[in-house]
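tl;dr need the bound structure. longer version: we got a ligand (thiamine diphosphate) that a collaborator sent over and nobodys looked at where it sits. i said id run it. heres the input, straight from their email, havent touched it
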Amino acid sequence: MNEEIRKLYRTAYGLRKDAVDMVYHARTGHAAPCLSEADILTALYFHVMNLDPANPHWADRDRFVLSKGHASPLYYAVLARRGYFPPEDLMEYRGLNTKLQGHPDMKKCPGVDFTTGSLGNGLAGALGMALIGKKDKKDYRVFAVCGDGELDEGIIWEAATYAGNEHLGRLIVFVDNNGLQSGGAVEKIQDLGDIAARFEACKWHAQTIDGHDMEAILDAVAEAEKVTDKPSVIVAKTIKGKGVSFMEGQYLWHMKAPNDEQYAIACEELERKVKEYE
Amino acid sequence: MAAALRDVYGESLVKYGVPDEKVVVLDADLATSTKSVLFGNACPERFFDVGIAEADMVSMAAGFAASGFTPFINTFATFVASICAVSAKSLIAYSGLNVKLMGGNNGLTGGYDGSTHHGIDDINVMRGIPNMLVMSPSTPVMMDWMVKTLVQDHKGPAYVSVSRQGAGEVYEEGTSFTIGQAKTVREGTDATIIAYGLCVPRALQAAEKLAQEGINVRLVDMFTIKPIDRAAVISAAKETGAIITAEEHSVIGGVGTAVAEVLTEEGIAVPFKRVGIQDTFTQSGSYAQLVEIYGVGADGIAQAVRETVARK
Ligand SMILES: Cc1ncc(C[n+]2csc(CCOP(=O)(O)OP(=O)(O)O)c2C)c(N)n1
Ligand SMILES: [Mg+2]
């Protein structure tokens, strides 16, 4: 493993720790949904995307939309560690008069490109940004992360169809395919069948990868960039709660804060992982 | 801790819905929050979790109703008033279908989830739809009655705005209510508070506090927001000479608006004030904090009464 990859893993586990800290401190929030998306957001923000944290509205920056907006703590941690605001502010999460609302708010939080919270709509927002990029012949890319349960929403497929027909090569969407939604297993609630094939039917380029394999994530983005005449979906097989043993694969941790004892275990496990990648 | 209305809702849905073969319950991946999960556990063959697909859920329910069933659909109030609204209007209300739209986590009860999850415009949206009965229960006793009535008696489109929380009981067990008839919770002569939902128990606290200050307030539970009980509004204005509406909802389009419509049409000019969310987006916070800062708690209501009575 090269040093860059090692560093990305280290960062991802550190960010997971931040997210768990925030949910524990606020005593409310979505912990497990943060842990599955951690490697994807880390790869994007700490390796892939062209950004200027000192200038969050830089016109040529790459855009990012967290369509599964409930997983905001990890996103806020990413933005803080990337320099958009001081990491000390993370403990404001879900407090009164804070930029760190329960769901990402583009008017309140520096670095947030798009407000989300009502599932399904983020992808359509990303589509709008990508269309403007195409119209204005801009080079910026638009990244989005959707939940797999979120794919139940009809608007996802309305947006996907439009994006396919517009040949939006600069739109790259990850599906955080952790197999769980709020009430249980995605497969049991609404079996989505072959997610990659569904997007392919909408004229997308599709890849399926291990969403906790940093090299696979970077390779998939590189592969997606080569495809200039189609939007890309990267179906990332992930584990909800990844990195905290008692949260892994447990839908009941979708929205729940750890108690003192659980928090201590989570910290211990995540810190051990950070050390492992030093 | 006061019983949460969502818990009472879930239990009552089991109590009255399970024995009725025609009742079907739908949810969109929020069954543990809305408490429709209790029905799902008790009667899985008449429970449908459609996934995160609110629009599909409501149009599907219209299909159930067109087949002679009584569907109860469940999701957060904010989503009923937005994603579900097309079908609520164009299919269900237009055709008079017997679908019960249950909007959970109403008002500010989504708390920490923030603005995108607060339901402060559901009454406004639903009130504007012809044929739609619009109600919101204030206490556990009324919640139970409402589910019973919707299952056993009422036929046709109905929207119910349900709190995730509870703020106490004001009714005796077994109190009877009538759709469209406001309930007077407390008699008074100096002003009337017209409220619904958790603002009713909170207004009762306010009224008790005000009584110690010598202000004697009537409290009317306007749990049927549409059709509104015009007679109750008119007599409140004539007999007490001042009206304060209170709701955990935008002041636009809720009971405040409905009462103002009655008063103006009747040509009754009395000091009048609307307690509610003042046409602003809300924010994340604990439910108690939000109730306080948006002025819809007992203190906010009491203050509004003092100001209104002073204008008499
Ligand atoms: C339109 C809408 N409906 C319902 C919700 C409530 N909700 C929040 S998260 C969630 C489950 C999401 O599951 P998934 O997309 O798989 O995300 P994960 O947390 O597993 O990554 C639901 C139903 C919402 N935020 N928006
Ligand atoms: Mg999922």
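gonna send this back to them w/ a short note. Chain A has a mean pLDDT of 97.
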